[in-house]
Amino acid sequence: MRKLLATIPVLILLVGVAAGQGKGVRFAAVNVYLDSGEESLAAYQLELAAEVGDVKIVGIEGGEHAAFKEPPYYDPSAISRDKVILAAFTTGEQLPKGKTRIARIHVQISGDAPPQYAVKLNVAASTEGRKISAKVSVTPQGETQ
Amino acid sequence: MADSDPRTDEDLIAAADRGDPAAFETLYFRYRDWVVSLAWRFTANRDDALDVLQETFAYLLRKFPGFRLTASMKTFLYPAVKNYAIAARRKRRRFAGEAEVLDELPAAGEPSGASREELATALGALDDAHREVLLMRFVDGMSLAEISSALGIPLGTVKSRLHNALSKLRADPRTRAYFEGT
Amino acid sequence: MRDAQNHEAEDSQLLAPKGLTDDLARLLRPGFTVPAEVDRVVLALGRRRIRASERTRRVVRWLAGAAVAAVLLVALWVGTSRARLPQDIDGSGRVDILDAFTLARVLDERRAVERKWDVTGDGKVDRADVDAVAMSAVRLDKGRVQ
C-alpha cells in the first residue's frame, strides 16, 4: 500500500504530451457569406480561423454568384492548417448585391469539441476599387464521417 | 503569506522591470506555493521541488529587463516548472533508483470522498494527457484558455481531454460517488 | 445560435463536483512548506537581478536615444520619400486584394503600366503579376495583412 500511495505523484508526472487527437474524425463544410447591402460587390479579402476545436482546412470552393464562382485566392499552406486568408475580385459587370455565399471551406474535424470560427473582413470593394462596408458571416454545414 | 498588494501581475512585472525589487518579492510570494506544489507533483521529491522553485524564479528573473507579460503568470510559469521538474527527476533517477524517487510520500490530508488509494488509482487509470489537463483545471485553477496556452494545444483539445477525464472518473466505480446527484 | 447552444451545453460537462476538486487538492498538496532560507536565496537573487536590470535599462535608454538621433539624421540625408513594396499598386501602404484588383483593371482598360509593377520579374506586366500580387495579399506567414 505504501508503494501504491507513493506512486501518486509519480503517476501524475506524466510527461507524455499525447498526440492527442480526439475520437471521431469527421468532415464538414463552412459557408462564408458577405452581405454588401445595396452595393455591388467586386472584391473582398477576409481572414477565417478556427478558434475552438481541432480543425484542418482540406479544401476551398468558390461562391454561388457567377462573379465569385471560381475558388478565391488563398495561400496553399493554409491547407491542413486552421486559418486562411481568402480574397477574390472580379472585373466583370455582373456583380452580386446583398447577402451572397462567396466561398465554401471544407474542414476536417477531430475530437469532441464542436468547432467555432472567427472571421474578419479585411476589405470589400465595389467597382473601381471603391471600398464599401459589408458584413461577413460563416455558417457551418452538417458534418459527415 | 497573504497578498494584500492590489497590483495586477502585469503591474508588478512592469514595476520590477523598472527596477523595483519589492514588486518581484510580491510576485514571488504570490506564486511561490503554487510553483512548489506543482513542482512536487512532478518530482515527488521535496528537495527537487525546492530546487525547481528556485530555478523557476531564476528563469523569470533572467527575462528582465524588457519582460512583458503577455499571458497569465501561471501560463508563463507552468512550462518552466514542468521542464525543470522533469530534468530534476531524470537526474535523480540517474543517481538513484526508482525506489528512492518513490520514497517521497504525499503528506496531504485524507480525502473525504473516495479513499486516498481509490482516488489515486482512479487518477492513475486516466490517460497522461487527460490527467494533466484535469489537474491543471481543478488543482491549479487554470482556465481552459490558460491551459491551452501553457500546453501549446488548441482550446478544443483542452476541452476534449477534460471531458474525457471527467467522463472516465464519472464511470469509475471508485470515483462515481462524487458525481451522484450532479 | 445552434453553435452557441452546443457550446454552453458542453461547458456544463466540463464542471467537476466540489467534493472531487477538494479531495484532489488535498491529495496533491505537498506536506511541507518552503523554508525561509529558500525565500531568502530567491529574494536576494531578485534584488541583485532587478537592480542590475535597472542599470542595464538606463544604458539601453541612452543608447536608444543616440540611435534615434542617428536614424533621423540618415532620414534627413536620404530624403523623405519612402520605398514602397512593388505589390502596393494603389499606394495605400499595404498589400491587399485591392492592389491586385487595381492592376487587373489597369490591364483590362489597357491603361499605362509602371515598370515596377512587374512583380514576377519576367519583363512584362500582365495577369501573372496580378496573380502574384493577390498571392502576396493572402500569404499567411507575412504578418498582418492590413
Structural summary, described in words:
The complex is a heterotrimer of chains A (145), B (182) and C (146). Chain A is mainly beta. In chain A, 8% of the residues lie in helices and 48% in strands. In chain B, 46% of the residues are buried. The N terminus of chain C is likely disordered. Chain C has 146 residues and is mainly α. Chain C has a domain of 46 residues. Chains B and C meet through helix 2, helix 3, helix 6, helix 7 and helix 9 of B and helix 2 and helix 3 of C.
Topology:
The complex is a heterotrimer of chains A (145), B (182) and C (146).
Chain A: H1 2-13, E1 26-40, E2 43-52, E3 54-61, E4 83-89, E5 97-110, E6 116-125, E7 135-140
Antiparallel strand pairs in A: 1-5, 1-7, 2-4, 2-6, 3-5
Chain B: H1 9-17, H2 21-43, H3 46-61, H4 73-95, H5 98-102, H6 116-124, H7 128-138, H8 144-151, H9 155-171, H10 176-179
Chain C: H1 2-12, H2 18-28, H3 36-78, H4 97-108, H5 127-138
Helix pairs in contact in C: 4-5
List keywords for this structure.
heterotrimer; A: 145 residues; mainly beta; Immunoglobulin-like; four-stranded antiparallel β-sheet; three-stranded antiparallel β-sheet; disordered N terminus; C: 146 residues; mainly alpha; 61% helix
Helix segment tally of chain C: 5
**Largest interface, with Cβ-Cβ < 8 Å?**
B-C, 56 and 37 residues
Unreliable stretches of chain B: 95-105
Total domain count of chain B: 2
| N- to C-terminal distance of chain B | 35 Å
Number of strands of chain B: 0
The proportion of residues in beta strands of chain C is under 5%
Largest sheet of chain B: none
- Total helical segments of chain B: 10
Fraction of residues in helix of chain B: 55-70%
Mean pLDDT of chain C: 81
Strand content of chain B: under 5%
CATH homologous superfamily heading of the largest domain in chain B:
RNA polymerase sigma factor, region 2, helix turn helix motif
Low-confidence parts of chain C: 1-10
Structural class of chain B: mainly alpha
